[in-house]
Amino acid sequence: MHIHILGICGTFMGGLAVLAKAAGHKVTGCDANVYPPMSTQLQEQGIELIHGYDAGQTDINPDLYIIGNVVSRGNPLMEAILNRGLPYMSGPEWIGQHILQNKWVLAVAGTHGKTTTSAMLAWLLEDAGYAPGFLIGGVPFNFGISARLGGNAGPSSFFVIEADEYDTAFFDKRSKFVHYHARTAILNNLEFDHADIFPDIGAIETQFHHFVRTVPGNGQLIVNAREPALARVLEKGYWSEKVWFGGPMPDGWTFEERDALTFDVLFNGEIQGTVSWELTGEHNRLNALAAIAAARHVGIVPEVAIASLSRFKNVRRRMELRGEAHGIRVYDDFAHHPTAITTTVAGLRKKVGPSSDQARIIAVLEPRSNTMKLGAMKEALPESLKEADLVFGYGALSGKDALDWDLGEALLPLAEKAAAYHDLEKMVESIVKAVRPGDHILVMSNGGFGNVHQKILDRIHSKAVSP
Question: At which positions is ATP bound (predicted)?
């Protein structure tokens, strides 16, 4: 089958393209922004890419068009497809029908931690010899790719998928995850997000309950006990075994911290082993509990899973060290929701120690998610950044990433330790003037952020930095 993918350079659709090609389909695609690294990865797979959405692409005459949720009415190629009555479906629906059929699907849902937890879980299965397939919204260092079919076929095969609550397509406003028919479902957390499509948290809870309704009776729900919103979801009904994690002992999966990078794992109050790794933050310990619980559901004993976690290397853009110059470290992280910002900063603080002249955290933030651009979370920003020693915020004045609110005003509660910029180069200049050896620069954005990480590193390399 020849499929042509609209919006192919998105993380999900790019992964779908890789899976489709591996499954033997001819794959082509188009996007408004065809650029590395996704364009390079796809071209290396032999996938032809077209820049833009001109209606003439119908002359390619594929068997099926797969539509990404970046596409809306008015898109010239989509209008041509509709006018000519050509066959199309959404990416999640195609994945559900053509990749996940007859597989044991392990789906990871939640406002935060989906990518990291999915990567952990895929690695636990891989390290135990299960050869899982996976589709993850990032690139796990243990695999070097974001998607693969897996080594087995048929009902004995396993597939780990990041289960997003964002809507499926302009013609299907259900969340993506209802198409996956998970047998093992992690409900990692639930907060208000995606203000561009959800009016309130109740609307998101409804979608999560639709997801719960798709899990079979012989399946398992692995649920974060700390989340009131998830408790409300389950109050609406569930039909599968439920396992808690993160709650007060001795119920379900819990942890006891030994130090910043080591913790004991307990199940129903009994110790199962000790994780020692390089990941920071309580959020990653909770992610680990969820992954261990899900691995147990498919037959991996906790001791084996815990040992595997010591070899887990995290995911690109999750506290990724981008470089070091003059004793100054620059990290890249995907955090963009205030809760994720809080846990990311707190995790780094625990790793580097209390604030001091030798252990300063310099937070560099671009609030560019749809929710942040609309201002739904702006009041929470100062509190989320309170453990940083200095804060540099960037907000574009125009274009698709422009904010609908004043970033400088929002950061006022942080007083003199925070500043907002509309000019990226001026912000980089200010950062480089402020840093000194021993600083940890934490860059947080869900976009490319103008490659600010490398700009900072290059400028620090080229100047003498005073202690």
Answer: 110-116
The pairing of strands 418-421 and 48-51 is: unpaired
Same domain, 249 and 279: yes
Confirm whether residue 116 is marked as ligand binding. yes
| Residue 419 sits in the same domain as residue 283 | no
Q: How crowded is residue 21: how many other Cβ atoms within 10 Å of its Cβ?
A: 17
**168 labelled ligand-binding:** no
Whether residue 338 has a cis bond before it, omega within 30° of 0:
no
List Cβ neighbours of 433 (8 Å cut-off, separation of 6 or more): none
Segments forming the whole domain that contains residue 22: 2-90
Residue 151 tokens, joined: 């080594």
Q: Which range is least confidently modeled, 83-87, 208-212, 238-242, 333-337?
A: 333-337
User: Do 225 and 85 sit in the same domain of this protein?
Assistant: no
303 and 199 both lie in a single domain: yes
Cis (ω within 30 of 0) for the bond into 382? no
DSSP β-bridge partners for residue 147: 135
Q: What are 263-319's pLDDT values in tens digits?
A: 999 999 999 999 999 888 888 999 999 999 999 999 999 999 999 999 999 887 788
Q: Report the Cα 200 to chain-centroid distance in Å.
A: 21
Closest CA to 179 of 90, 64, 297, 88: 90
Q: What length does the chain have?
A: 467
Does 353 appear as a known binding residue?
no
* Domain assignment of residue 447, yes or no: yes
- The annotation status of 342 as a binding-site residue, yes or no, is no
* Residue 294, C-beta contacts closer than 8 angstroms, at least 6 positions apart: 106, 108, 121, 184, 186, 220, 222
Nearest Cα neighbor of 315 from 122, 445, 110 is 122
Q: Is 114 annotated as a binding residue?
A: yes
Residue 367: which residues within 8 A CB-CB, separation 6 or more? 336, 373, 377, 378, 381, 393, 395, 403, 407
Q: Is pLDDT above 90 for 461?
A: no
The reply to whether 113 sits in an annotated binding site is yes
